[in-house]
């Protein structure tokens, strides 16, 4: 019984193969797509503008050849630029002789487009900025503790002048990260434009992520700036208690000297309340949560 079943399967499979072979021996019509490739360009020149990147050929031929050509998707349709520069045009049928891989498939019935306009332009170089497209989301209680560094931040590109002159920046692929809780480093590919050569194919991106905590700094001296000659501004009290929020490692390494508390002497001249509000400056990715006292009494003295 098992042997009989295998025989039936074999006969059925053979019949299908024979049917496919016989069917593909007939003639059919099919559309074969080919990408345009320009050859015989002057040294230092390239094709910038072209009216089409792809050509559709309607071909009549044996099914087996058409299927092979469509599945393999091989071969660019070569067009000779004849070492000429400037705006030119090429009639596609005139280039068939140097594209044997296509003509050997069968009879060419239709071509679309029948003509391609193109511009042969000199190759130039230019340095442009790299623009990243990054969206960061952090795990609760964590946050960014540094700038987002990327290298290189600019790259050199080259290509036909008509294309290069309209490019002011290159963009990376979009990156979205979630639940970040530690330092991160990644390579981001650059989105490349056809016809342009790039010095690098991407840039490295890295940044620090730390647990966000609060830390109190006591007795931060308030500095008076821009005091005129012969006068002195005495602050009461002369120090602040400041609470900062930031990355745990960043705050742990901070010193009192990393915090600047200032009052400009001119603030006392124009004051109408009798107290002055200090200006507090802290490092990047650190924020001031609170400071006491909020305003300071003062006395202007002659030296």
Explained architecture:
Strands 2, 5, 7, 10, 11 and 13 form a 6-stranded mixed β-sheet that branches. With 303 residues, this protein is an alpha+beta fold. It is elongated. It has 3 domains: 23-122, RNA Polymerase Alpha Subunit, Chain A, domain 2 (Beta Complex), CATH 2.170.120.30; 123-210, Beta Complex (RNA Polymerase Alpha Subunit, Chain A, domain 2), CATH 2.170.120; 213-302, RNA Polymerase Alpha Subunit, Chain A, domain 2, CATH 2.170.120.30. Residues 10-25 have low confidence and may be disordered. It contains 6 helices and 21 strands.
Rg over alpha carbons: 36 Å
Form type = elongated
Biggest pleated sheet: 6 strands, mixed
Taking the alpha carbons of the first and last residues, their distance comes to: 119 Å
What's the CATH first level of the largest domain?
A: Mainly Beta
Count of alpha and pi helical runs: 6
Strand content: over 45%
CATH-derived architecture of the largest domain: Beta Complex
The helix/strand order is HEEEHEEHEEEEEHEEEEEEEHEHEEE
Estimate the mean pLDDT confidence: 87
Secondary-structure-derived class? alpha+beta
What is the share of helical residues? 10-25%
Q: Work out the count of structural domains.
A: 3
Oligomer: single chain
CATH topology of the largest domain: RNA Polymerase Alpha Subunit, Chain A, domain 2
